[in-house]
Each structure stands twice: as structure tokens, then as C-alpha cells.
Amino acid sequence: MVRALKLRFLGTGTSQGVPVLGCRCPVCRSPDPRDKRLRTSVALFVNEKVWVIDTGPDFRQQALEARLPTIDAVLFTHAHKDHTAGLDDVRPFNYLQNKRIPLYGDAQTLRQLRTEFAYAFDGPPYPGIPQLTLWEIEPLVPFTLHGVEVLPLPVWHYKLPVMGFRIQNLVYITDASAIPEETWQYLENTDILILNALRKDPHIAHFHLEAAMEVVKRIRPREAYFIHISHLMGPHAEVEATFPPHIHLAYDGLEITF
Description:
It is built from seven helices and 14 strands. It is an alpha/beta fold. It has a single domain, classed as Ribonuclease Z/Hydroxyacylglutathione hydrolase-like (Metallo-beta-lactamase, Chain A). The protein has a seven-stranded mixed β-sheet. Strands 7-8-9-10-11-12-13 form a seven-stranded mixed β-sheet. Helix 6 links the parallel strand 11 and strand 12. The longest helix is centred in the C-terminal third of the chain and has 11 residues.
């Protein structure tokens, strides 16, 4: 049972982040801090434990800015580098907590982690490597983490299977372009929906704004927050001003408690 749940958006940007290197568009030059987007990741504070969903290339900076006290688990949505590249930066938490950190992902993601961070898993232990334990999860097979049930939700990132997560009445989905029929029934009675919305124009591998709005309309959550946003979405303030009150563009550092 969840006694208290807080979520912090560590990053809300797409794979290139915002501003994009070399770009001079109005969003990339915007003085609005909500238009500065690190790669997408969240921290969940659940029953005095800290879970992180994805560790992208900006994870060290994100953990510092959020002043994360511990990392008690990392859940991975998929193996793309903008969601995994910062995994090595969990090492200080190994020292602080004096324990291994469990990683949860599907078989494909765990294989990729073992390849990219082979020094942490293969051969004799080397001083200072991250101390990690791999836990394979399967779509629609719930698992319990610190006494709380987590349900992995299968979605499609073009042709790549990706995991979303349902934790109580919170649903988190990123890097999706389609939701299979088998998943929709598990999205009913969602209180908080966090969903990717890349830009205004259609994209082959991500929901664009109109498609994300259609998902929100079908699920009918109390609140919806869009993430994995590119500079092509437009200025944060202008875009959010067009939304109904229960739909929001998330931004880096935003915290929600429920």
C-alpha cells in the first residue's frame, strides 16, 4: 500500500534535449526555464524510498539538482541511450547506501545494459564499478517493489516494444507511438497520466500532440502531463495556454504529490 507518493520530473526533453546543439530557434533561445529540457526521467518517492525511471545522459546533473538522498531502484522503459547512458552515475549511491541497486527491465533492455556496462557485470570485480542487480520483468506481469505493486505496460515505440508502468493510479508512458489493445484495459481509472508528446507534427516513433490528446481523451485521467518534448513543440507558455485545465506540459523540476 502506498502511504505517500511524490513524483519529480528530472527531465522532460527528447533525445537531443532542449536547447538543441547549434539551434537558434525561438525555443532554444528562450529565457523561460521551462523551455530548458534535459533528457526524460522521473524520480518517485514511494514509502520513503526513491525509485528512478530511466537514467539518461543527464542523470548526474538531474540527481544533483533534485538532491536525491538515495536510489533504491531503477526501472527502465527501454534500452535507447537517452534512457540508459547515465547508469554509471549511480555509483555514489552504492557507497552512501552500502548496497547494490536493483535494476528492472525487460530481457532486451537487460541484455543491452550488460553489453554497454559490461565492466559492471563481467569478469572479476574492479574497485569502484557500479554495484547492480538485474531483475527481469515481463509485460502485464506485476511485481512488488518495497511493498508496492508495479504493473509493466507494453506499448510500441515504432517497432520496438517499450515498457510503461502503472503504480496504483499513476500511469507513466514514454517513447510510445501506439498502445496495443491488450494494454488499454489497464489504463482505466487512471488518476495521473504521464505520456510522451514529442511535437505538433506527426512522428513515426512518438505520439505527437494531437495523438497524445486523443489518448488522454480516451483514458480520461484527473490530470495529464506530457513529457519527451522537443523544441519543435513550441514555447512552453504558448503551448500550455491552449490546453484545458487538467492537461499540462511537464517541465524539469516540476513536482506533483498525490
